[in-house]
Write a structure and sequence with these properties.
Blueprint: E1 6-12, E2 34-36, E3 42-47, E4 58-65, H1 69-83, H2 97-110, H3 120-135, H4 137-146, H5 151-163, E5 173-176, E6 179-182, H6 199-212, H7 225-248, E7 251-252, H8 256-263, H9 266-269, H10 271-277, H11 282-294, H12 300-316, H13 320-332, H14 339-348, H15 356-371, H16 384-397, E8 417-420
Antiparallel strand pairs: 1-4, 2-8, 3-4, 5-6, 7-8
Helix pairs in contact: 1-3, 3-5, 3-10, 6-7, 7-12, 7-14, 7-16, 11-13, 12-13, 13-14, 14-15, 15-16
Length: 422
């Protein structure tokens, strides 16, 4: 999927890569650096040294080689097979005899043609179902416990939901090329299918409401805490898009479209941690993300810059996995004001389950960081919004104490590199 090799030469005025405990949000900190991140390859060579004392130009060559995407996908397949009760053995990315046998069992159980080789649809359904089950938390555990077939029964239930989304009209199956294919319900059903909410459409509606009410809600005028937080969510989204687009304009060697295409890798790469957002504490989620980035090998400045670019892309294209994955990466890098976005996603249910209790902890962590002197990344000229968010989230979140992440480690990661010109 991301198999092409990218070789790009870049000029930098001064490559700044220094150990940091927290990468600041200001794009000026990326002076002359390569902005890299989780976008689809492994940087295997990164040569950059200052050869002049002042205003000298150093030529750096960054070779980005796409990772073994198939091996990573195979590990996902093996993990999903094991979860649903089809013993594939260790998730090592090698589909050997045991894994092929598990695939055959999966195909037989689902009514697919038994070949031991997954079709794209069969693989996508299997892996997507796994992440859906994992993100379901307690609700998933209850469904599994109530089904005589356990996790396999859950998988069959997911298949039935796709075949008959309305749950009412009967559906039939047919055989095409020796494969069982679910047919559409006998009667049309426009209201039964799940609709993926659009944050862009949501923010358009919020904007209209804000304008009709004469402006943004303040602490003194706040009546509906949820409405106030919706306004701030959409405001933060606008700032995130603008900041990322500014960085994109200074990236050398890639077109905006190419950058957007590569940023799509943030979602699949971060799926496990995005799912954890809905069920785990702040510290547990950050611990998982930090372990992920520490294992990859790119400097904090590179990761931070690319995450800000991909955050913008995620919001602009309405790809919540890319947006949430980018925000998680920034928070794990020590840029805690981005925790506000994670609180918004959890509160409103865009790309995550609705969890007002967990949302409150993310809001608190970001606000505590701002109170301690972290630079604001959203509406920096409006410090009063911090108090508004704190009071509104306190009303909705029940006033539980905020959690501390204790995570701000220097990190690095794996994938392409963009050059931000000064």
């Amino acid at each position: 999927m991301f198999s092409k090799q990218i070789i790009t030469g870049v000029l930098s005025a001064a490559l700044l890569i220094a150990p940091v405990a927290r990468v600041t949000a200001d794009s000026g900190d990326l002076v002359g650096g390569i902005v890299g991140g989780i976008i689809g390859g492994v940087i295997v060579n990164e040569a950059a040294k200052n050869r002049e004392r002042k205003q000298s130009q150093t030529v750096t060559r960054t070779i980005v080689v796409a990772p073994s995407v198939s091996r990573a996908e195979n590990r996902e397949v093996q993990t999903a097979l094991n979860y649903f009760g089809f013993a594939a053995g260790a998730a090592d990315g090698v589909l050997g005899r045991r894994s092929r046998g598990a695939i055959s069992q999966y195909q037989q159980s689902m009514g697919y043609r038994v070949t031991g080789l997954l079709t794209p649809y069969e693989q996508d359904f299997l892996v997507t179902s796994y992440y859906r089950a994992v993100s379901g938390g307690v609700a998933t555990s209850q469904r599994i416990a109530a089904d005589p077939q356990g996790t396999r029964g859950l998988l069959l239930a997911y298949q039935e939901e796709i075949a008959n989304p309305g749950g009412g009209a009967a559906s039939t199956t047919s055989v095409v090329d020796d494969q069982v294919v679910a047919a559409a319900p006998v009667l049309p059903n426009f209201m039964g299918a799940a609709v993926v909410p659009s944050l862009a459409s949501h923010c358009n509606a919020v904007s209209l409401m804000t304008n009709s009410n004469g402006g943004f809600t303040t602490v003194s005028t706040m009546v509906d805490a949820n409405a106030a937080l919706n306004e701030q969510f959409c405001l933060a989204r606008t700032y995130a898009i603008a900041r990322g687009e500014d960085l994109v304009s200074r990236v050398q060697g890639f077109t905006p479209r190419q950058i957007a295409e590569q940023c799509e890798a943030f979602g699949p790469a971060m799926r496990e941690h995005i799912a954890a957002l809905s069920v785990k504490s702040v510290s547990d989620v950050v611990s998982g993300v930090s372990g992920f980035v520490l294992a990859s090998g790119i400097s904090p400045a590179q990761m931070s810059g690319t995450a800000r670019i991909c955050l913008s892309v995620g919001y602009r294209t309405d790809n919540m996995n890319v947006a949430i994955g980018s925000a998680l990466m920034l928070y794990a890098l020590g840029e805690k004001p981005y925790g506000e976005l994670l609180g918004h996603h959890l509160l409103q249910g865009f790309g995550a389950s609705r969890r007002s209790d967990l949302a409150f902890n993310w809001y608190s962590a970001s606000l505590d960081a701002l109170a301690a002197g972290a630079p604001a990344v959203f509406a920096p000229g409006q410090p009063e919004r911090n108090n508004l968010i704190r009071q509104a989230s306190f009303r909705i979140g029940g006033g539980t104490s905020s959690s501390r992440t204790g995570t701000g480690a220097s990190v690095s990661t794996s994938l392409p590199s963009f050059m931000v010109a000064q």
